[in-house]
Amino acid sequence: MMKRIIFVALSVMLLAGCPSLPPQQPEPPTPVVPVPPHEKPISPPDKVPEPPKMRITDWEGTMQPLVEQMVKTDGLGSGKLLLIDTVKNNTNGVLQTTQATEALRQAVSSKNVFELVSQNQVQSARQSLGLSEEDSLGLRSKAIGLARYLNVDYVLYSIVSGNSDKRDIVMQLMLVQTGEILWSGVDDVK
Predict the structure, then answer these.
(1) Torsion from C-alpha of 51, 96, 171, 119, nearest 10 degrees
(2) Which keywords label this protein (predicted)?
């Protein structure tokens, strides 16, 4: 009981020592002027985010040294038929695989070592096998299967991996008949 009396006395003293605030008068409301629908107020535009910068890749400069190495491989038959598989994207970003594949085709074609399977033949074979054009034949077995269907001697399989700061390309030249990797090369994507 004594604790309650002390508590009440301390509470009264504490409250008595608080200065009281003068009563506040409400501010008069500001009049709202209706805006006709055809005269909507113009608000400043939000800041438009900057689109990501596209990284320009030197596919010719990337492909040329690897193709140089590949054509020096011992035991390659000159004039043999080669299927160049679409370059596979294993990066964490967007990659212009069509441009990369075309640069690879140009680099190989300029060496006059292989006879390349035409794009029309590849597209027809893909359709016959039920492969979409976007399918980069992610598995080596799919690439070998397409090459066997086309009755070619070699298939060139390429994968780009890494991230936006550092990307590598790995190429493998495979003998279609056995699936044996005859040559393999790795280089930085420039």
Answers:
(1) 180
(2) Cell outer membrane, Cell shape, Lipoprotein, Membrane, Palmitate, Peptidoglycan synthesis, Signal
Among 117, 80, 121, 84, smallest CA distance to 101 is for 84
Q: What backbone torsions phi and psi does residue 83 show, to the nearest 5 degrees?
A: -100, 125
CB 62 within 8 A of CB 187: yes
The CA-atom distances, in angstroms, between 82 and each of 21, 23, 33, 37, 151 are 91, 92, 77, 68, 10
Structure pTM? 0.69
Q: E strands along 6-94, which residues?
A: 81-84, 88-91
DSSP conformational letter for 132: -
Q: What is the distance between the alpha carbons of residues 67 and 171, in angstroms, rounded to a whole number?
A: 9
pLDDT, tens digit (0-9, with 9 covering 90-100), for 110-161:
999 999 999 899 889 988 888 776 665 557 888 888 999 999 999 999 999 9
**CATH, domain range 59-188:** 3.40.50.10610
Q: Where are the domains of the chain?
A: 59-188
**CA atoms of 16 and 9, how far apart (whole Å):** 11
